[in-house]
Structures are given as structure tokens and as C-alpha cells.
TrEMBL record, chains B, D:
It comes from the Bacteria. The keyword Electron transport does not apply. It is a multi-pass membrane protein. It is found in: Cell membrane. The keyword Transport applies. It comes from Pseudooceanicola albus. Belongs to the binding-protein-dependent transport system permease family. InterPro entries: MetI-like, MetI-like_sf. SUPFAM superfamilies: MetI-like. This is ABC transporter permease subunit. Keywords: Cell membrane, Membrane, Transmembrane, Transmembrane helix, Transport. Residues 66-242 form the ABC transmembrane type-1 domain. GO terms for biological process: transmembrane transport. GO terms for cellular component: plasma membrane.
Automatic annotation (TrEMBL), chains C, E:
GO terms for molecular function: ATP binding; ATP hydrolysis activity. This is ATP-binding cassette domain-containing protein. Belongs to the ABC transporter superfamily. InterPro entries: AAA+_ATPase, ABC_transporter-like_ATP-bd, ABC_transporter-like_CS, ABC_transporter_ATP-bind, P-loop_NTPase. CDD domains: ABC_NrtD_SsuB_transporters. PROSITE patterns: ABC_TRANSPORTER_1, ABC_TRANSPORTER_2. The keyword Cell membrane does not apply. Keywords: ATP-binding, Nucleotide-binding, Transport. The lineage of its organism: Bacteria, Pseudomonadati, Pseudomonadota, Alphaproteobacteria, Rhodobacterales.
Length: 315, 255, 246, 255, 246
């Protein structure tokens, strides 16, 4: 048991944050060790986690929902095996004191501070159109500075992860309001997932199962002991999480919003129907392209794009 | 005459073509043989193919970047010149300003992007300022060191002729700095396009930087590299112009 | 006549080398003064003091009339041609500094080129000239400036006898015509005798004036055999330089 | 003697201190008077205070960055020297390699980060390589231009003495390039720390770049700026060292 | 005795200037040859041809024995001191190039400094020396190389008579002792007569040899009055240079 532990590498999608909580808890609580694994969480890099996974630098990675669909459509056999959050954590945010924005249709003609994905365009215009607007707005690609730009009024609205940026705005007492995607015709999705390459996972089912189960155990512990989990995360990241209040509040939001464990007790599992819905949405909006950058002509069959096969036996 | 001149120029470009082609070929072969996934490193042939397919978008995005590059570089040249003159005339300024300029070169974009957005918005101006900020320092160092390289005999001679500080500067220090200036120019113009691309990361509607960011976030490394090809080509043209200007400006070196 | 230029008890140390011990002499308007002395004595340093490039350790320099920076046309010992200016623009440099346009300066200096044996080299770069040609260009640059006081530091050192005599003759005539005051550093005793009204002989470093001579030979002196008087003076100066007491 | 030397050095640093302090003061006052939100631009006093509180973490992260900076810069110096010599000895290499190097300067990190991770992993090596890549080019241009500035008379003299190509290079071209080298050194060392910080974005466990990224994503602009202070201080020290080395290496200029 | 060095019908154009028209002469081993001619004639260019810095348009140069790059010790017209080397290291440069360590080169050249009037300036930089001192340093640098052939381009141009005579005497003695062959460019006819075994007089550009003279005066010639024969030769050469037919 002590000797030959299998080494597994895990790639992150962003700087360490509460979405990664279960991964760190599992390490600290020895769940990986129990499962015979030696898990190395790779440092966050400019390179997307899916690229690292696709090229074997890491066996597992945090996949964003849209990123995954894009890549899989292009022929990279990524496969999510665990949903970190059970519902969409993203939302549209804007300055709460703005009298001219009451509903998504009011966003027409406004300036959007974006991050540079094709998905955002479809997302925002769907939301505006879903509210009866024209879906026309100006995009300024900002990346990391979107929230400062919003705070200083240089852009009118942007997107955020409500359990991170949203929580921070609340902590700072910023009068911020938001629109939820699902309210305006965008399907709900598992925003953040853990996955690997399907062929690799199928070739290494035991390792995969061991890893996914350990992670699940970590996330379950975090959902049940958010304060303690927050401490673990802060400690494990060597002072990089320099805003402990944010971590705690974010954990509270993840628990309160039933993101880590859904109201019905679901943890990690993905509903194929929801995946298909999201896949169809992306296909219908022309966001799925093949390996040569050409629009997919035929609607893919999304079943089998994700799996729940490596989760612990559901009770 | 015309034909032979053309042939001569082509001959000068030959080694460059050979080496660049060799690298592209090696890359193509490496990707092929090592079976590198195109999600990581697409083959150059694919980059060219996809870049060509996206040429309209690429061109539309190259425009703003080129505009920022050229205006920013012009501003950089002008201010490097002004500051170098000020430093030359008021030596204490050198000690006072150099640390500030050095610090200005160490500011990472993530740290200042919010401020730039706050102060200047998303127009051309902030890009121009950022390009100027990045390319300014090599020019300044080169000019200041160039002035210092002036032969004392020449300065004494000019003073004996009744030239004042300004006359000595214009007639001896400035021409003496020319070779240094061009070393600085070639260094600095190399950074100008990249600087404009980076500047766009602070917030922009269009530009090669935005194109790259989009391509990357949409998992299109082939388009990322296509944009890099365009930016490299722009840089090479600017660099070649600088080198040509250098040859033209120092005829006495060639005689 | 009150002196135009007066040096009083100048002393100078450069680095840790004492260069000038005690230099005093006067220069009267229109007078041609030659300084002669061993290599490394401090002759060029005297010029640097006059030009204000160095400050004396002791003593003082007084100049009547023109302010210091408009008084001298200076020819340095090394030619100090600017590599990036064509010969014609090097020769016209002083005129440009005085405010003339480049075009006017070129027009003003071009007629001198044949006289200086530089015809056809107007548009050459300094690096394309022979040593003697560079020296002539530097001399021309100095003379066109038309300043009241001429400081010449070994202006003919790189010239052959014939070219040199030509230049000297021309200089003698030109100075007589313009009544310019001149100071000439030379190591050629005969040159000093041919050109100067007064000769100061300097000792080795640290320099002081060993002897001064008035040269009263009739002018023009060049282009014809020197009188016996001149030969006697030459011998006398040689003796002074060699340390043989008179 | 010792005391006066210290006082002299302090006097030399005075203008720098004055100007840097003036900027900090202006910043403090601006933040105060304009009521800029500390989430956008914290006051320097706050930056210092919070930076001090986080000094242990800051220091722990400054270490790897400094290591990458110094090793990368050493590699850069060495390879700039090697390539400059190669170009000097085989002139066609100049035309062949310069375009490649220019292109190498135009590669945005986002484009090459994946390759770097794939080829070199997450250790120190890729950072060293990236720092070298960024700082190499100014040194190369400076050296190559420096060699070209050599006085022909000196080279002819050496050849007459029986010196071969290498002897002429070592005894005339190399020393002639010294002032250019130092201009390039001062330019390039200024970029070294920033380059190391950027290199960390390609993947690192620790480092000022990682610290900045995390502080940014954790909404701590004060700590972002504290790290920028540290990186600026490092750069200033390196720059001052380069300037000091320059003075020491060219005693004939001071005499 | 077969010539050590032989120049045959050399012609040279630099830029668009025809510099050498037709230069032919031989140099025998141990012989001291002087080249005299007007400024800008092409004297220095002849040296550049010998050194292989320029290729002749026509004609050829043959050298017996040593390969070209080990044959000459060359003193250029402009001193070409390296600003970044101390005087002692400038003087020792040739020895270092020949493979001596810097330390050994310093030890080898240090004893020469008093003789060249440079004692105490060993550790100075070239910029801290007077024009004549620089020239002497360059001369010393050339002589210490101990090459079979010496090329001196106006080595005494910046020196006063006394210093110059001292240097010349020393050179004469040294050459006699080492049996070195020497080529001297000078514009000083008397200097040529005092030092040379053979004098070639060059025409103005494009240069050809107007006349050649053997100088058979007894040695040592310096430090004592020249015989009447010498004065006659001087007059003859002056006439040739002035274009007066013999
Ligand atoms: N680098 C060069 N490029 C073009 N022409 C040159 C160059 N160097 C010299 N010349 C030309 O060659 C001719 C002869 O020059 P050279 O230096 O040989 O003369 P010289 O006899 O040594 O004269 P001096 O006694 O003045 O030194 C001159 O007309 C000069 O203009
Ligand atoms: N820049 C300098 N720094 C220090 N010492 C110097 C400098 N220039 C000249 N000297 C010293 O001053 C002394 C006199 O030099 P100066 O040039 O005045 O002599 P000179 O009489 O003109 O000699 P020459 O006839 O050889 O030109 C020399 O000993 C020289 O070493
Ligand atoms: C903790 C966390 N915060 C922000 C982002 C980046 N981000 C900002 S908005 C948005 C999309 C919302 O639909 C994403 C992904 C992240 N990846 N993880
Ligand atoms: Mg002198
Ligand atoms: Mg010559």
C-alpha cells in the first residue's frame, strides 16, 4: 500500500479557487493516498487544461463546459467524468445603480466587457433576444480587467462566476445586479467539470475511478465542512489565496446555492439530457466546428460525450 | 540596371529566406514525425491554409494593430529624443529620470491594465501610449550612450568656433549618436508590434492581439499562429526598413 | 600698443603631471607669435587654456575686445574632421556655426579648394583623404573663419616641403592682408622664423619660457633665400632648445 | 575616507530618490483627492503596508523569479556573445539569422506557452529559456553593431602585426564593442525581471508572476502592486549593477 | 644580392581617384629605403598594398622569405593607438599578437620608455598624451616587433627637432645592429638623406617614380654636420620635387 502509488497529474483551468476545493481537500485528507494515488496538481498556466490533457501532460484537468464541447467537436476525445458544479455558475452582471438597465433587453447597444470566446456572443445575444431585445451590443475584449472596467463604468456589463466574482462584489458592498442565463433561454450547464481523454480513461479504468472517487470524496467533505475545507485550501496554496474572507464566503455560496451537491443529493454526476441540450444549443448557434475549423454540418450525437461511469456507486 | 538591382536585393534576402524556410520545414517535419497534436502545435502548412481562409478577418484585425504600432512608435521616437536631449543638457535629470524609466519598463500589463482602461478607455490612445512605453527605453539608452561617445576633440573644436551647448549638441553629439540610435531603433522596432498586441490585451475591440486571444480561447492554435505569422511579417518589414534607413543615413560608413 | 592677449604666470597640472610651470607672454594685435618647444612640453595645453577647455592652476589670461568664444579660430593638432561631413562641409563648419546656411558656407569655401590642393575632393569623406590632405582641410576650415586670433597647432606637420611652403606663403599673405593676430605651435624652427614676429622657446615639461626672440626680417620671407641673420637666429634657438647657454 | 565615499554614493542616488518619492507622493495624493477606489488603484501607503504584512510570501515568491532572471540572463549573455561572434566571423549568418531572431522576439507567450510546457515542463528551465529569449536580442544587436564600429586603422594595424581574424576580433573588434555592449546590457537587463515574471505565466509553482496572477484573481490589487514594487526594486538593482560595471570596465573613458 | 622585396609596375585607383600610375622598385635586404613625394601622392597607399589591405589594379609585389603577414612591422601615419590600452600595453601590442603574455610583453617593452621620453607614462591612457608622445609610443610599438621589414609612415612628423634627432639616431643604430630592412615615408628631405641608403622621389598623384638616388654617405650620419655632398643631394631632390629638370 505504501510503495507503488500511481502518479496522476491534474491540470487547473484558473488560479486555485473554490472550484478546486475538493482536489485540495482530497490531498489533505489523504483520500488520494488511500486510493493508491499520488496526485500532482500542476501549476496553473496560460495553456488551457484541456490542451494539457489532450497532449498527455496531465491525465486529468478541469474542463469548462463550453471549452469541452468546442474541443470534442473538433475531434479531441475529451470526456468529462465529474461535474464540479451541478448548475451554471456564470451570470450577467452590471452596476446595480444603473436605472437604464432593468431587464436584458436594455443591454441592447450597451458595451460588453468580454473574455474573447465565441460562446459569449451567442450567450449574451440569446439572453437579450430571449427578453425580446435585438441582441446587438458592442464587445470590448478585456480578459482579466473586465471587473475593474465594470467598476469604473468603462463597460456596461460583463459575465462573472457568481461564486467568485459575485461573492467578492458582495463582500465589497458593490451594488451589483445580475441576470441568470437560464431565465432567458440558455440551457443550464455544468460550468466546471473534471475530465480526461476518453481513450486513456478507458484504458486505465481503475486509476480513473480511484481518482474520480477520491475527488468526489473531497468535494463531499468540502460541501459538508465548508469552513474547514476553506482553511485547507488556503493552507495548501502557500499564501497565494490572499483574500481568506473571499474563500470562506465563496464556499458558503457554493453550499448555499447547492452547486457542489444538488438539492436531490446528486454529486459529480451529469445528466446526459442536459448535456445534449447544451450541445444542441451550441450546435444551433454555430459554435461547433470540426478539426479544420468548418462548421459541423450534422448534429452530433452527444450521448457518450460525458460519463458518470467512474463515480462512486450512487446510494 | 533595374533588373540587376532587383536581383541584387533578392540576393540579399536569400539567406533570410533559406533560414526561415528551413525552420518552417523542420517544424512541418517535426509535427509530422513526432505526431504532435494540432491542438498544441499545428503544422505550418495548416497554419497557412487556415490563415489564408481567415485572411479577411486577419487583415481587418491587422489594421488597428499596425496603426497602434506606427503611431506608438512615432510617439516613442519623439519622446525618447526629447528626453535624451533633456538628459544631455541637464545631467542631474539622468540620475533622476533613469530609475523612473527603468521602473516603467517593469510594470506588468496585468497590473496597469485596469488603470489604462480607467484613464484612457478602449480607443487607439491607450495602445499608442503602451507601445510608446515599451519601445521608448531602448531608444533613450541608445541615444544617451550615443551622445556620450562623442569625440572630445570635435566638441572642443566646435566650442572654439563659438558654438554653444546647443551647437555642440547638434553638430557633434547628435551625429555621433547615430550608430547607437540605429542599434536602439532596430531593437526597439522589433518590440513595437508585440507591444501593440500586448496593449490590446488591456482591452480592445479589434486587433491582432484580440484575434489571438479569441483564437486561443476558441481552441484554434492554427489561427493563433496565423496571427503570429502576420505580426512577424509586420515586424520583419519594419526591421528591414530600419536597417535600410541606417544604411542610407550613414553614407560615410559605406564609402 | 596694448596687448590683445596676455598670459600671466600660468601654471597647470594635468592628472598628476605638472605641465606648465610659469608661462607669461603678451600678444600684440596683428602680431604673429610662434611657440616652439620639445614634444610633450605643454604647448597644446596652452591653447587649451586659451580656449577655456582647461582652467589654469595659477595665473591668468586676459583678452582685449572680443569675448573668448568669438575670438579664436583654432586648428587642433589632430585634425578633428567630422567623419560624417563631406570635406567641403568640414571646411565650412566654422561658417555654419557662425550662422551661415550650409549652401552659403559651401559657396564661401569652395574657391579655396584649388589653393589647398583639394580640388575634386569637395564631396569626399574625410576617411578618403590622405593624412596631409586632411591636415590641409583642417587648416582651410580654420582660416575661413576670419576670427581676430588664429591658434594653429602644428598646422603643417604632415605636409611635404613643397606643399608646406605653398601653404605658408599663402598664410603669410593672408594674415598680412587681414591683419589677423596668430599663435603658431611648431617644432620647425625655420618655419617659426619664416612666419613669426616673435618666438617663445619653451623648456621641457613643466614648461616655462626659456627665451623669447623678436624676428625683424623683412617680409615676405618665404619663396626667397633667407638672409644670414635668419640662420644665426636658427642656430641660437637650436642652442636654447638643446640647453646650450647663450 | 570611507564616510565620504558613502556620502558620495548617497549623493549620486539622491536625484533618483527624489524623483521616485515625488511620484509616490503624487500617487498618494491623487488617490486621496480623486477618491479612486482601492480596488482599482490602492494608495502606495496601503501597498507598502499590505506588502509588508505579506513579506514572507512575497519573499518566497521573489526567490524563484530572481533565480530565473539571473540564470536566464546569464544564458542570454552567453548566447548573444556566441551568436554575435558567429555572425561576425561568417557574415552570411547575419542575413540568415537576424530575421529568425527578429521573429523570435515577436512570438507572444500565449502562442508558445503550450509548447514550452510540453517540451520543458514546469521547472526552472523553461523560465530560464524564456528570459534568455527575451533579453537576448538587444545584446545581439548591440554587439554586432559594436563590432562594426571598430576603427579600420586599428584592424589594419593588427593585421600588419600578423593577427588573424580571431586576433583582430579579440584585440580590436571586441573592445570597440564595449560601449555598445553596455548600452545593450542596460536595455536588456531591464527586461530580464519582467521576462521572468511573464515566463511564469507559462506555468510555475511559485514566483512573482504567479503571486501577481493570484493576487489579481483574488482581488488584491494592493498585493499585485506590492509584487510590482519588489520586481521594480530587483530591476533597479540589476540596472545599477550594470551601470556600475560599465564604469568599471571602461576606465579610459573616465581618465 | 637578390631583392627582399620587389614592386613591379604597380597601379592603383581608389574610388575614382587614380592614385598610383606605375611604381616599380626593389628593396635589398638590410637596405634603408626612403619614399619622398608630395602630400596625397599615394605614399601611404603603397604601404597598404604591401600589407595586402589593398589589391593593386595592375603590377605585382614579390617578397622573398617570410610570408607577407609575418614580414612587416608597420607604423601607420595616424598613430592607431588603442584608446582602451594603457601606453605600455599599446607598445607591447605587437608582442602580444606574436604570442607573448601581457606580463612578458610589458617586461620586454618597459626598458624602452626612457629612450622614447615616455618614462612615467607607462600606465597612462593614449588620450592623456600629447601628439608627439603618441607618435613616439606608436614608433616604439613598431620597433619592438623585430620583424625583418619595417614600414614607417612619417614616424617623426609630430616631433620637435631635438626629440626627432634623438629618435633618428637611435633608429639608425638599432637598424644597423639588427640588420633590419626599412621603408620610410617622409616629407623631410634631410631626414631621408640622413637615414636612407636609397631614396625614391614620387610625382604628384597619380604617382610614379620621378627619380631614385643612392645615398652613400658614411654612417653614422646623425649627430654630426652633414658633408657638402649631402647638401648637394638635398638640393637635387628639392629640384626634382619642384619639377625642375636635372
Ligand atoms: N580610403 C580611401 N578611399 C578612397 N580614396 C582614398 C582613401 N585613402 C586615400 N585615398 C586617396 O588616395 C590618394 C593617396 O592617398 P595616400 O594616403 O596614399 O597619400 P600620401 O602620399 O600618403 O599623402 P600624405 O603625404 O598626405 O599622407 C589620395 O588622393 C586620397 O584621396
Ligand atoms: N587629457 C589629458 N589628461 C592628462 N594629461 C594630459 C592630457 N593631455 C595632455 N596631457 C599631458 O600634458 C602634457 C603636455 O601635453 P601637450 O599636449 O600640451 O604637449 P605638447 O607640447 O603639445 O606636445 P607635442 O609637441 O607632443 O604635441 C603631456 O605630458 C601630457 O601627458
Ligand atoms: C473562479 C473563476 N472565475 C472566473 C473565471 C473566468 N470566467 C469569468 S466569466 C466566465 C464565464 C461565465 O459564464 C469565466 C469562465 C473562471 N474560469 N473561474
Ligand atoms: Mg601638442
Ligand atoms: Mg600618407
Amino acid at each position: 500500500q505504501t510503495s507503488a502509488r500511481t502518479t496522476v497529474k491534474m491540470a487547473l483551468d484558473w488560479t486555485p479557487n473554490t472550484n478546486h476545493i475538493g482536489l485540495y481537500v482530497a490531498e489533505a485528507k489523504g483520500y488520494y493516498k488511500e486510493a493508491g494515488l499520488d496526485v500532482q496538481i500542476l501549476p496553473y498556466t496560460d495553456t488551457s487544461a484541456s490542451a494539457l490533457v489532450a497532449n498527455g501532460v496531465a491525465q486529468f484537468g478541469i474542463l469548462s463546459s463550453v471549452g469541452f464541447f468546442t474541443q470534442r467537436a473538433a475531434g479531441v476525445p475529451l470526456q468529462p467524468a465529474y461535474a464540479v458544479v451541478q448548475h451554471e455558475t456564470g451570470r450577467v452582471v452590471f452596476d446595480g445603480t444603473r436605472a437604464d438597465i432593468a431587464r436584458p433587453a436594455d443591454l441592447d447597444g450597451k458595451t460588453y466587457g468580454g473574455f474573447g470566446t465565441a460562446w459569449e456572443d451567442a450567450l449574451v445575444s440569446t439572453i437579450i433576444k430571449g427578453d425580446g431585445g435585438k441582441g446587438e451590443f458592442k464587445t470590448v475584449t478585456l480578459g482579466t480587467s473586465a471587473y475593474e472596467a465594470l467598476a469604473s463604468g468603462r463597460v456596461d456589463f460583463t459575465l462573472e462566476i457568481l461564486t467568485w466574482e459575485g461573492v467578492n462584489a458582495e463582500l465589497l458592498g458593490r451594488p451589483q445586479r445580475s441576470f441568470t442565463y437560464a431565465d432567458y433561454g440558455v440551457p443550464d450547464q455544468y460550468t466546471t467539470m473534471i475530465g480526461g481523454m476518453q481513450p486513456w480513461m478507458e484504458a486505465h479504468p481503475d486509476t480513473t475511478r480511484a481518482f474520480i472517487e477520491a475527488a468526489e470524496k473531497g468535494y463531499r467533505f468540502a460541501a459538508e465542512h465548508p469552513e474547514e475545507a476553506a482553511e485547507i485550501l488556503i493552507k495548501a496554496t502557500n499564501g497565494m489565496l490572499s483574500n481568506p474572507a473571499l474563500i470562506k464566503a465563496s464556499m458558503a455560496a457554493l453550499v448555499k446555492g447547492q452547486f457542489l451537491i444538488d438539492g436531490d443529493g446528486t454529486i459529480g454526476a451529469m445528466d446526459p439530457a442536459r448535456i445534449t441540450k447544451m450541445g444542441n444549443f451550441l450546435f444551433d448557434h454555430g459554435l461547433l466546428r470540426d478539426g479544420d475549423g468548418k462548421l459541423l454540418e450534422t448534429r452530433p450525437d452527444f450521448t457518450g460525450w460525458t460519463t458518470n461511469a467512474y463515480l462512486s456507486p450512487q446510494d | 540596371m533595374r533588373l540587376s538591382a532587383v536581383r541584387h536585393q533578392a540576393g540579399r534576402a536569400l539567406p533570410a529566406l533559406v533560414s526561415v524556410c528551413a525552420i518552417l520545414l523542420a517544424w512541418e517535419v517535426y509535427v509530422d514525425l513526432a505526431g504532435v497534436s494540432p491542438t498544441l502545435l499545428p503544422a505550418p502548412s495548416r497554419v497557412v491554409e487556415q490563415g489564408w481562409a481567415a485572411r479577411a478577418v486577419l487583415l481587418a484585425n491587422a489594421g488597428p494593430t499596425l496603426a497602434a504600432t506606427l503611431s506608438g512608435f512615432a510617439l516613442s521616437l519623439a519622446s525618447a529624443f526629447v528626453f535624451s536631449v533633456a538628459i544631455d543638457f541637464v545631467p542631474v535629470l539622468r540620475r533622476a529620470l533613469f530609475p523612473v524609466f527603468v521602473i516603467s519598463q517593469t510594470l506588468p500589463l496585468v497590473a496597469i491594465a485596469p488603470l489604462i482602461v480607467l484613464w484612457f478607455g478602449f480607443g487607439l490612445l491607450p495602445k499608442i501610449l503602451l507601445v510608446a512605453l515599451v519601445t521608448f527605453f531602448p531608444m533613450l539608452v541608445a541615444l544617451v550612450d550615443g551622445y556620450e561617445s562623442t569625440d572630445d576633440d570635435l566638441q572642443r573644436l566646435l566650442r572654439s568656433m563659438g558654438a554653444g551647448r546647443a551647437g555642440v549638441f547638434r553638430r557633434a553629439r547628435l551625429p555621433s549618436a547615430l550608430p547607437y540610435f540605429f542599434a536602439g531603433l532596430r531593437i526597439s522596432i522589433t518590440y513595437a508590434v508585440v507591444a501593440a498586441i500586448f496593449a490590446e490585451y488591456a482591452g480592445a475591440q479589434r486587433g491582432l492581439g484580440i484575434f489571438i486571444l479569441n483564437a486561443k480561447n476558441n481552441f484554434r492554435p492554427d489561427l493563433v499562429l496565423a496571427a503570429v505569422f502576420v505580426s512577424s511579417a509586420l515586424t520583419l518589414v519594419l526591421f528591414a526598413l530600419a536597417a535600410g534607413l541606417q544604411r542610407l543615413s550613414m553614407p560615410w560608413r559605406r564609402a | 600698443m596694448s596687448p590683445l592677449l596676455s598670459l600671466r604666470n600660468l601654471a597647470l597640472t594635468r592628472g598628476r603631471t605638472p605641465v606648465l610651470a610659469d608661462i607669461s607672454f603678451d600678444v600684440r594685435p596683428g602680431e604673429f607669435t610662434a611657440l616652439i618647444g620639445p614634444s610633450g612640453a605643454g604647448k597644446s595645453s596652452i591653447f587649451e587654456l586659451l580656449l577655456g577647455n582647461l582652467a589654469p592652476e595659477a595665473g591668468q589670461i586676459t583678452l582685449q575686445g572680443a569675448p573668448q568664444d568669438a575670438a579664436f579660430a583654432y586648428m587642433p593638432q589632430r585634425d578633428a574632421l567630422m567623419p560624417w561631413r563631406r570635406i567641403i562641409d568640414n571646411v565650412g563648419l566654422g561658417l555654419e556655426v557662425q550662422g551661415m546656411s550650409r549652401r552659403a558656407a559651401r559657396a564661401a569655401v569652395a574657391p579655396l579648394f584649388p589653393r589647398f590642393g583639394l580640388e575634386g575632393f569637395e564631396r569626399h569623406w574625410p576617411a578618403q583623404l590622405s593624412g596631409g590632405m586632411r591636415q590641409r582641410a583642417a587648416l582651410a576650415r580654420t582660416l575661413v573663419q576670419d576670427r581676430p586670433l588664429l591658434l594653429l597647432d602644428e598646422p603643417f606637420g604632415a605636409l611635404d616641403a613643397l606643399t608646406r611652403t605653398g601653404m605658408q606663403q599663402w598664410l603669410e599673405a593672408r594674415l598680412a592682408e587681414t591683419r589677423t593676430t596668430a599663435l603658431l605651435i611648431t617644432h620647425d624652427i625655420r618655419e617659426a622664423i619664416c612666419l613669426a614676429d616673435r618666438i617663445h622657446v619653451l623648456s621641457p615639461r613643466p614648461a616655462q619660457i626659456l627665451a623669447s626672440f623678436d624676428v625683424t626680417l623683412p617680409r615676405p620671407r618665404l619663396g626667397r633665400p633667407l638672409p644670414a641673420e635668419a640662420h644665426a637666429l636658427e642656430a641660437r634657438i637650436t642652442d636654447v632648445l638643446a640647453g646650450i647657454p647663450g
